[in-house]
Specification:
The chain has helices at about 25-30, 50-60, 75-80, 80-99; strands at about 5-10, 15, 35-40, 65-70. The protein is of the alpha+beta class and about 100 residues long.
């Protein structure tokens, strides 16, 4: 039987299993760099829209932008030309101004 990896928690305890990862932990403190979140508003299978809105709202970044590709899903943003073009129209100037 394969053993689950352990994760050291800030409380000083170890936890194991798939439910120990929190990608948004401490975003209010640690996520301070310029931030752009690109999401589609068409519901998908795992909550990318709500996760994008949450991380945008919680981030401590002073300069942040939320780009919503209306009518497209998270998966459409991988390789469908129209939503990718919508995203890049925002992402390229954002990178030019912040990198």
């Amino acid at each position: 039987m394969q053993k689950q990896p352990s994760v050291y928690l800030a409380s000083g305890r170890y936890a194991s299993g798939p439910m120990t990862w929190n990608a948004f932990a401490h975003a209010e403190v640690l996520l301070t760099q310029p931030l752009m979140v690109v999401i589609g508003n068409k519901p998908g299978g795992f909550g990318a829209y709500s996760d994008g809105c949450e991380i945008y709202g919680r981030a401590a970044s002073k300069q942040k932008e939320l780009v919503v590709a209306e009518g497209w899903s998270h998966y459409d943003l991988y390789d469908r030309p129209e939503p990718v073009a919508l995203a890049l129209a925002k992402v390229v100037p954002f990178f030019k101004g912040n990198l």
